[in-house]
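In response to a reviewer's request, we include the raw inputs and outputs for one of the modeled complexes. The four entities were modeled together in a single run.
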Amino acid sequence: MTKLMVETLDTESTVVNMGPQHPSTHGVINLKLHLKGEVIEAVDPHVGFLHRSIEKISELTQFTGFIPYTDRVDYLSAMFGNQAWCMAVEKLLGIQVPRRAEYLRVIACELNRIINHLIACGTMAMDLGAFTPFLHGIREREKVNDIMEKICGARLNYNYMRFGGVSRDFMPGLDKEILDFLDRFEKFLPEFNRLITGNEIFEKRLIHVGVIPPDLAISHSLGGPNLRASGVDFDLRRDFPYSAYPEFKFKVIIGGNYRGEAGDSFARYMVRIEEMEEAAKIIRQAIAGIPEGAYQTKLLRNPVVPSGEVYSRVESTRGEMGFHVISNGTDTAYRTKIRTGSFVAMSIIPPIAPGLMVADLTAFFGSLDVVAPEVDR
Amino acid sequence: MTAPEILSAIQTKFPEIKLELQQGPAGDPWILVTSGDVANVIRILKNELGLNYLACLSGIDYQDSLGVVYQLRSLSGKFEIMVKTLAPLENPCVPTISDLYASANWFEREAYDLIGIQFQGHPDLRRIMMPEDWVGHPLRKDYQPPAEYHGISTSRPNTHQLLDQLRTAQNRSDEKSKVDTVPHVTQSGTVIPKSGEGQNL
Amino acid sequence: MKELYDSISTSWQLSPGMMSLVTVLWILAIAVVVLAFMATFAGVTSWVERRIAGRMMSRIGPNRVGPGGSLQWIADGLKCFLKEDVIPQAVDKPLFRFAPYLVFAGCFAAFAALPFGYGIVASNIDIGIFYISAITTFVVLGILMAGWSSNNKWSLLGGIRSAAQIVSYEIPTGLAVLTIVVLAGTLNMQEIIKQQGGWPWYWFIFHNPFSLVAFFIFFSSILAEGNRTPFDLPEAESELVAGYLTEYSGMRFVFFFFAEWANLWVMSAIITTLFLGGWQIPGVADLGSVIEKSAGTVKYLWILASVASFFFKTLLFVFIVIWVRWTLPRLRVDQLMIMCWKYFVPIGFICLIGSALFAILPQTGAWYWFQLSIKLILTASGFGGVVILLWRSFYNIRALDDKIYFKVWE
Amino acid sequence: MVLALKNYFINIKKAFVSIFEGLAVTLSYLARKPITIQYPDRIPTPVQEMLPSTYRGVLEVDMKICTGCLACMKRCPIDIIRVDTFRDTETKKNYITRFDIDIAKCMFCGLCTEVCPTGSIRHSTEFEASSANIINMVLQYVEYGDKVPFYKPVKDQEPVSIPQNEAFRKVHKAWNAPAPIDPEKVRGQVRWKSDQSAEDKS
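The model returned the following structure tokens for the whole complex.
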């Protein structure tokens, strides 16, 4: 009798579609949740809603003409797309980038890292119900946007780098402006931490939630803050040095030095917070040691690229951003494969999410810092 | 470790596997493996040489064959290698490596979706970017995009052509082009008087 | 209020039939007055909250409709009332239609026993606080109804969350209320206020350490009952889209929010009554007896002063609730329950027992001075906390090299 | 047991202190200046004038110094620039008869400005270029029917250009300006591509 009762009372799990229009999926991503009460049994992520065929476009556009498209791969950190693409083509062309240009690239990239992490930390707080930190982050980001406007002329889709350098040199007085911003920013971060990071509710929501063990992180090819938060000491800027990064001293931030454990959502959050500080230090070093000289080699209008295959990667804000470029000796790429950090970060959700609650999933998802267009490209 | 070193390291241990080191006129070198051996070679690379990180997996249409390129990396040893395999166009079958690297699961789904490579032994080979009912593999070189998808046109009107057509039509209906005499009002309400009229250069 | 009604019934010499008509009209008039107050308050608060939230985020907030945007709430209300009343096809229509009114009614009924000043209360019932605790729980019925009838999984989750949350938090609320009831010895709202003196150290919040703790428990759990952040799990916009509100739009949606903002007043007024001496004015030792002794215009002026005092304290708490909302992140469901059952309920019991001990202490000799010194110390530490808070705020401004800038109308 | 009890009180204390700090931060913002720029009407100067000259706004062309080299047209990755030239066989002079920029499609990448030999095509700091009619989004820097002679660069002399934004303001129509041709009059002669495919299907 009891057995029969149990069988009849056994219920199905509820299937809920989280997204494509959902406040916390950061774009159009669909997570099909199988729920038992509020506890998740299984997640099936559906991506591709923002597939803009950027890889196909690269086969139709000349190498130079594809630079603006690399902005759109990850619009929150457009500099890194620029840099990875330019590095790939420079490697095929065999161009040496002037040292000043490398320094300018590093400054632009690290500024971009700061504003991207501001958004990442802010939206994460927003996913947990605190709206104010998000707008405080946006406010500081706006100051960098003004600087970016002077560096390259745009606020979001920078299109700053060219094969063999950058599109324009610093305006006079810009370095002073950047240093002023950094002075303010280094005071702003403690205030941001007082507002949200140290908050007991915030920490309780994040620690021990969505723990990614290091071996799983490596197996899933996670990159950037997500990988380092799991305790894996790996940073492309240090281990596969490119650009001018070998000339700077910076710390590679590893997660797990705070409350909670390595690999949980709070570790990922803290790695981002600390990386902003490190980025500020790198910018200071770069501005102090910026060499004189040309900011680009002779402008390549429409380069014919020798045939070959190359894989270039940069340490983007969301992990490794890699461009696998195949050239067949014309002025157009034969095939480009873009490897992004968000794409692999999405694939970690199905193994980790079961057992979390719906509220935890938004925290976990926010801590992965997934940007939908970068997933789909 | 460089590519030749890795190649010789495998060859000395497993001489029966056919490997070839190739490089284009520019760019990185890669190890070419036959499609039957590729899973074994990558297993050896992972277990013996510690290439524990699959950085990238791309499917490529080489027109005479389909290719899969694996970008493997050792996080501790700080070296990486490109491994390439080719599969025939008619029956593009490549063994899966999703049991070796969890990330290969989605990478292979993408390569299947966009290029049409069949990964044998893959647990969940579905489309990932395109809708489930999409026909064809869009990144194939011989792919022809459909004119519409469920009644939605896949092309946009070309404004230049539209303007051309309009002008032709206008000439046909013998109307003179009207000069816009309305003062220019921007969205913010700033009125900018229409200047320079008749100032033909 | 009661006196006016009594004077009508005695002086006009009406027949019993006419008298019952007068009674009905009287009740209706009072209800309309309270409803008008509630509506205006809810509307204006919606604007004030947006302005305050804006400034906290370095924004300005709505400032275009009327002076400083102060008519924004009318524009928003009109917009929502003119919207099409969308009722999805698959909903349980009678329940779906009825739920907003139930929520609204639960909130509106609480106003019946709320004091607004000395003697100004719609119905001065002897079980006032008990009635309010009971009737505000009505809201959960409406929310659960909305969640269920929407036939939407997100709504259902929100409704269930709300039921669990409000039912659980009734217990710490009740315990904290009991703590005060033990001290006051009555459930009547006016009497509770009369039991407290004018000076802050005679208020129940600083009566003894246990009542101070009870104040924090009461404040937190009433936030939870009102579905305000950090306890806004039923509507949790980043998790459940909009919770039980997901399928609502237009006028019905407004009714929910109407109730939410009116609820702000209810919770703040209860806090003021129970803990902050209600309409007592600091400096006037015993306002109740002062008013009873005076007559004529002076009496009405005193009553007006009591109303002002009550409004000031209540609006202060409305501000605090808004301020807390725009600062804190949201709790998780299980953490919410842990907070209730592991922290608030046991501590609430301790507070109840401790306060009861204080209540039976003799009021003579050394005991009197002992109790007075505790009250003074608590008051001093309370105000010290406020001073530290202000100091920290100015420290924050200085740390970023910002300038102090006060301009309310922007 | 003792440890658990200690943790219990530590939790309460932490919650109190951290929430207190957070409240102090938000309170302090009530006494700071908001950073909102009340675009478009309540700002001292138009945003266009606050932007740095390097800002990549809507493309504009100074026809006086255009050499007609077509470099921008070739460079554009999305083919939004359309330049027609013709050579007068009698006078052996070259003219530009058409210089259209479809800003509805433009992605403001600035690649065209980098290849221009004289700086004729460049970014303005204007960004309010939306229009109710997509045809009006095609900026016609050479009026229909006009012809503009090529500019011949003079050695060791910078080409003189008109001030920024002026060329754009001259050609840009108001956002609610009517279409150049009433679509009703040319109905049947012009068809959108999607209409065509729908008709073909039926």
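As requested, we also summarize the result in words. Residues 78 and 162 of chain C are 29 Å apart (CA to CA). Chains C and B do not touch (no CB pair under 8 Å).
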